[in-house]
Specification:
heterodimer; A: about 300 residues; mainly alpha; Glutathione S-transferase Yfyf (Class Pi), Chain A, domain 2; 13 helices; about 5% strand; B: about 230 residues; about 65% helix; mitochondrion (chain B); protein transport (chain B)
Chain lengths: ~300, ~230
């Protein structure tokens, strides 16, 4: 089996949410799957990474997380994921994965794809520099549109409110445990890790969700544990990412500065904004009055009264 | 809510869930059936609750609203139980509703024989054939965005089975999902189960899957006895 995922960066083994979920899940059950870092999403049947190519050439590549978990269960490894769960735990696991997909995932999508500042500073630049020229425009546009459609008509505050609630729910559910179902990792842990790790590691100029997440120390600890046990990075990768870090930091501080500047100019322009309409209105009134006066005099409307005054 | 002969499976289920919830909290309310409820609701979501001049749409918003007024069914639960309950609600609300939507709008025979007629029943020709067509296009787009358009009927059945299995396991032999007292998750569960059991569709596989889980069916009968027998 080959698992194709997006390349690594920012101290993460891969930058994308679902790529992380696939990778974490395969590492948790020590599956011998070969991990390929790829930037060629067009080879997958639905045009998205991650994709799992099977060994026998005829089988269709898998892009669905549940199907991937099924394959992992069946491939005869020593460690079978989700094997020791009771029926009730399994039921709760299904319910939670659905809950997270509808309450937390939209906020993650919003943070990376719908928030203009984050998108322009980080997401767009990252994907554009990893894909080649004409294709990257098409791919970014396609993926952004899809993200926006998935967010639907909800506004920012609703999405964030749902996500804050989901984070709190997760935090109470985790408690002081090492993983969500006791001491052994499950596919739910892989899912949660996928949603949370990019929020923690990728530096972003608009970071409301990140701040909220850092306020749940047990979730932060959970992400650290999973990444240090199952997804340690190699020396080379760390070095390469280190070299890029300065560039990213300068981009982000620049974006933040731009944001501040835009805010202050907006405020000052708002203060200024009141004046021109008022001045314009006065000028317009004076002009209009003058014109009608000239017109009235010209047609002789006022002349009559003037003559009367003189006569008296 | 919509008229009984117009409402589609998932809309009917949500309306029933709200009624059950309000009965569980023993708040007084009147049910009004309106053929144009789609257009009364500001965001197209039904059911809607009208209190004086306030309109509240959707099951979750109604539960939230009632909660803010100080009436709640979850005060006896621990935080973890509330977390589980929220997860259950979300599973019924999203996964099960998507399954129902898929059956009603994507399956050709069901659409021709049931959905089209029901949805168009309150309009005159030509609206009665144009509006269902437009609605179908919209729903199919929604399904495509969820990556559901390529699913086969069997895969959809598996998803439904997953929901029923999860809920059935959590219900076990208890009276309600979280023990002896009802919560809003029970109201929503009852709404959907009752609808699935009583609905008549050309396609019976979802109902057949449900029949495997006898405790869910008993639960539905029990809630019906308790809250809807007068």
């Amino acid at each position: 089996m080959e698992l194709h995922i997006w390349p690594s960066d920012f101290g993460l083994p891969t930058i994308d949410v679902s790529s992380l979920q696939f990778l974490a899940c395969s590492k948790m059950c020590a599956s011998p799957v070969r991990v390929v870092q790829s930037a060629r999403p067009w080879r997958s049947p639905n045009g998205e990474l991650p994709m799992v190519a099977q060994i026998d050439g005829n089988a269709k590549p898998v892009t669905d997380f549940e199907k991937f978990v099924d394959i992992l269960k069946k491939c005869g490894q020593d460690v079978v994921i989700d094997a020791d769960l009771t029926t009730i735990e399994r039921a709760q696991l299904d319910a939670f994965s659905c809950y997270l997909h509808h309450n937390l995932y939209p906020a993650v999508l919003h943070t990376f794809w719908a928030d203009e500042l984050n998108y322009n500073t980080v997401t767009q630049y990252w994907y554009a520099s990893h894909l080649h020229f004409p294709y990257n425009l098409y791919y970014l546009e396609k993926r952004k549109k899809k993200a926006l459609r998935m967010l639907g008509g909800k506004n920012d505050t609703e999405i964030l409110k749902d996500a804050f609630m989901a984070l709190n729910t997760l935090s109470t559910k985790l408690g002081d445990n090492k993983f969500f179902c006791g001491n052994k990792p499950t596919s739910l842990d892989a899912l949660v890790f996928g949603y949370l790790a990019p929020l923690l590691r990728v530096p972003l100029p608009n970071d409301r969700l990140q701040v909220q997440l850092s306020a749940c120390p047990n979730l932060v600890r959970f992400v650290e544990t999973v990444s240090s046990i199952y997804l340690p990075l190699s020396e080379e990768e760390l070095k390469r990412q280190q070299s890029n870090r300065k560039m990213w930091q300068s981009r982000i501080s620049k974006a933040k500065a731009d944001k501040e500047a835009a805010k202050t100019t907006e405020e000052t322009s708002e203060a200024m904004a009141d004046e021109p309409p008022m001045r314009d209105a006065i000028l317009f009134t004076i002009g209009a009055l003058a014109l009608s006066l000239v017109f009235a005099i010209h047609t002789g409307l006022i002349q009559v009264s003037v003559e009367e005054e003189i006569a008296e | 809510m919509q008229k009984n002969d117009q409402a589609l499976m998932y809309d009917f289920a949500d309306c029933l869930a709200v009624q059950t919830f309000l009965r569980m909290t023993s708040l007084p309310f009147n049910v009004r059936q309106r053929p144009n409820v789609d257009f009364i609701s500001p965001d197209g979501v039904i059911p809607l609750l009208k209190i004086n001049k306030t309109l509240i749409t959707g099951f979750n918003a109604i539960v939230d609203f009632v909660h803010k007024k100080g009436v709640t069914l979850t005060s006896h639960l621990s935080e973890t139980q509330v977390a589980d309950m929220r997860a259950n609600i979300s599973m019924i609300e999203h996964l099960l509703t998507t399954v129902e939507m898929f059956v009603l709008w994507k399956h050709d025979e069901t659409y021709d024989k049931v959905t089209k007629l029901r949805y168009g029943s309150v309009y005159h020709w030509p609206l009665s054939s144009v509006l269902p067509f437009l609605k179908r296009r919209k729903v199919l787009e929604e399904l495509a965005d969820k990556d559901w358009d390529a699913k086969t009927m069997d895969e959809v059945g598996e998803q439904a089975d997953k929901v029923f299995r999860a809920l059935s396991a959590q219900l076990g032999t208890q009276k309600y999902l979280t023990g002896d007292l009802p919560t809003e998750a029970d109201a929503l569960l009852f709404g959907h189960m009752y609808t699935l059991i009583t609905v008549r569709l050309p396609l019976t596989n979802i109902t057949n899957i449900l029949k495997k889980y006898s405790n869910l069916i008993e639960f539905t009968k029990r809630v019906e006895q308790q809250y809807f027998k007068q």
